[in-house]
Amino acid sequence: MKKGLARRAFAAAVAVGVGVSLAACSGSGGTSGGDAVRSGAYTGPKVTVTFWNGWTGGSQQTILADLVKQFNASHKNIVVNPVGMQWADISAKMPLAIKAGKGPDLTVAHGDDIATYAAQGLLLKADATAKELGYTAADFPKGLYEHGAYQGSQYGIPWSVTPLGLYANKDVLKKAGLSTTVPATEAEYTTALDTLKSKGVQGEWVDGYVFTGTFQFESLLWQFGGDLFDKDVTKATFNSEAGQKALQWMVDHVSKGYSPAKVAQDGNINALIAGKTAFNWNGIWQTSNTALLKDDWTAAPVPQIGTEKAVWSSSTDWAFVNNKGQDANRTQAAANFVQWMNEHSQVWAGGGELPAANTVRDDPALVKKYPNLAPFLEEMEYAHFETTSPGIPNAEATITVALNNALLGKQSVKDALDTQAAKADQLLQQNKQQYGG
To answer: Cβ atoms within 10 A of the Cβ of 271, count?
Structure first.
């Protein structure tokens, strides 16, 4: 379920060439729309709510279609029309569509896109709607709700979260004479990798791609006490001592023979499935990977390599769209749909994503129905979510470039991080000029 791959790949291309202009915007410091209509039970005339989303295939598309069908059947005056497209296409198409009054009434956005959309004036504020629906920060994982805010106003209402975990091929571990209990500490993990190496197995393949090298690096960075950017998101800090420790740990996998020097996109998860490696840091979405399900595998929280527990997690948020001439009835109906979907989100876990609503995610019935999700639920206490700042995906993409250059031996760890941090600083400055604030 590589939901953000196309979007992040585009951002990576921009990051390499700092002079390239940023994504289309309604203008520097675009003004967002007013509040979305308060929810309440929608009792107005029959309306059709257009809902853009990036779930275009696999189990998620099927689950979403079924949920929408159930909602439509139980709401005689609301018809939700889901329109699936690539995530990158949503970002590209919304500005012009909204300006023409032809955008969706509702969309779903990743956590690091919300601020960009808000700064572009593409979204309605959701403060009043969230209050009417009864949502507060306490209803979601720690730190998540705030990621849907921009300049003091709420724009996103959380829908799902997708943390990283550690996958293990139990057959490979058994053949190496190792316990199938997945390592939880740096010492246990290193011992396992050394044992696997002695048996001719490169135990964990690291890569220089967003999926999943960048997510692994960010998890390690936070574990070593670092952060991606400063508090105001004006300067990159991923080249700190913590960042160097994180990337060095990954580079050492290559130099110590735990990993091949050059791993293709998806090479690590494919190697795990093929029995060529034992471990892979990957997202919760792999729990619905039908190829993986054929193997004797298990998942666990990512091991604690640094001084504290931390793990990367993405998120998706509902967002109400600020179309020219937006129909208030459709927005109010969309709010009803959002509330209903969050209340019925347990089945969403079957597609490899955790429901964001605490009441649903913490219900023992969820892990009873989807036992493979247990380790990912455990990680919610220390998950780190995406940075919130307009245009931030472009600056984030420089991290992937640094990883690639270091893992391939093109630059030292320090030089790779310093070079890309400087480029990220330029992009952050461009973002400020582009979006204001």
So the answer is: 22
* Distance between CA atoms of residues 371 and 389, nearest Å: 35
**Do strands 153-154 and 354-355 pair parallel, antiparallel, or not at all (unpaired)?**
unpaired
Q: Where in the chain is the domain with CATH 3.40.190.10?
A: 5-14+40-162+314-384, 164-312+390-435
Regarding pTM above 0.90, the answer is yes
CATH code, 5-14+40-162+314-384: 3.40.190.10
Residue type at position 422? A
Q: Which ranges in 151-274 belong to alpha helices (H)?
A: 170-175, 186-198, 215-223, 241-255, 267-274
- Confidence at 29, pLDDT banded by 50, 70, 90: very low
Q: Which amino acid is at 352?
A: G
Give just the sign of the alpha carbon dihedral 120, 121, 125, 126: negative
Beta strand spans in 208-366 (E): 279-283, 297-300, 311-320, 354-355
Q: What is the DSSP string of 28-47?
A: TTPPP--BPPP-S---SS-E
| CATH number, domain 164-312+390-435, options 3.30.470.20, 3.40.47.10, 3.40.190.10, 3.90.550.10 | 3.40.190.10
List all residues 6 or more positions away from 21 whose beta carbon is below 8 Å from its beta carbon: none
Whole-angstrom Cα distance, residue 59 to residue 318?
20
Antiparallel, parallel or unpaired: β 297-300 and 157-169: antiparallel
User: How far does the chain reach from its first CA to its final CA, in angstroms?
Assistant: 34
Can you tell me the distance from the alpha carbon of 420 to that of 214, in angstroms, rounded to the nearest whole number? 13
C-beta atoms surrounding 20 within 10 Å? 12
The tens digit of pLDDT for each residue in 306-337 reads: 999 999 999 999 999 999 999 999 999 999 99
Return d(Cα 73, Cα 55) in angstroms, integer: 22
Residues 6+ apart with CB under 8 A from 269: 167, 212, 280, 282, 286, 289, 292
Instruction: Give me 201's structure tokens.
Output: 């197995």
